[in-house]
Amino acid sequence: MQEIERFRKRARVQHWWIAAWAMILGLTGLFLFLSWFGPAAEGGTSRLVHRIAAVCFVAGPVVYFLMNPRTSWEWLKEAFTWNKDDIGWLQAAPIYYFGGPEDAMPPQDRSNTGQKLWMVVVIITGVIFVITGFFMWFLKGNISAEVYQVMLLFHDIAFIAAGAMFLVHVALAVFHPRMSEALRSMWGGKSSTHYAKTHHGKWYNRISAGESE
Amino acid sequence: MAKAILYDATKCTACRACQVACKNWNEREAVDTINRGTYENPLDLSTQTWLKMEFREIGDNGTFRWLFTRRACMHCTDAGCVKVCPTGALYHHDEGFVAYDKAKCSGCGYCVEFCPYSVPRMDTNRASGLGRMDKCTFCAAPGLDRIDAGDEPACVKTCPTGALTFGARATLLAAAKARVEDLKAQGHSDAQVYGENEVSGLHVLYLLDDSPETYGLVVNPKVPAAAAAHDVIKPLGYAVAGVVALGLLLNIMVARARIISREEEKK
Question: Is A189 left (phi over 0), alpha (psi -120 to 50) or beta?
Fold first, then answer.
């Protein structure tokens, strides 16, 4: 079977680093957010873990950016560059993901529209989490109660948005029959040439033509 | 049957025996005090001081009045702290007041930010975030529960002038209203009860012979609107998680079945 490299090692390390801390943050945050999980927050250990995880979570992208500024910009550009094929993807996706025919799906780049949407959600909610979290951690007592209340509210709203998209991301990457090689390529870096052709045609054509990613 | 404490400001001499009794019963430490030219000490509520008397000197038209106000948890019916407490450490006692089980506190400090009376206190470590909240427990804290034992709160027990009384809220309210009429008859035209309807009714009632502003009480206290938003977004959180999870399960099952059947057709 022919293989093609889709994610370089540093990108994969970055992905799993963020993923691990984000899941710890989500879980420990859930303890304070939904009362079903409230008893797990008793004593405050989960809040300490939340803070340690927050520092690691922020450190990941910062270190990545300092070490690979150009690649970082490329990733950002990729996430926020949308064109008519993305509109086409959004229209065709419901049929495609419920196992319908593949013909209506426009060719996709290295990341498909759904994956880009996830990147955008991660970046935007990530920024909201960091700003509101910074206020609640370091400025508690120095800001008015009203400002704190708004920060908490936006932290919660960002959590609902990011949490919902996280469920979609994991379900598709791990369990969806159409995304059979997404997890494999993020873990080992490679996917089969056939998968790259059928799922990321635009990117595959560029790579085969010897162009840059 | 809701219970309450009635504080009659017109009977209070500000001896502060209640402050001492509160510390004594609840095992709070003494706080170093400073002479600032007033008997009022310590300066503010703290994790060690759950109840303090405020002293106000009012001079108008050549007359001088010395007003005293009891400052501690007001035990709201519509309590912002209870609404936002994630662990259930803060809860409504069967008798209506806001009880507190410190063992369950996570130290999140949301109660501090959602209290319309700025009562909860914490000595939180800024970096780690560890530390637990303290406030008046209505002497119903686990292990130090006077109410369950059929006794009155320590502050009421010790009050030498009868300024503090404990009992059924409705009874105290009726008594307070009767005394308002007495005071008005004696010429105190501004006599009034504070706490009957504030935040849906306090479980600490105040009998005043002047306006609440003059006594330094919060006029028209409100549970922050953001607390009501919590009532919306928490169920929203459950709903979104449920709908998304169910939708994904359905999606993957359908997709699998259709793709497998198509592959079998090819064969």
Answer: left
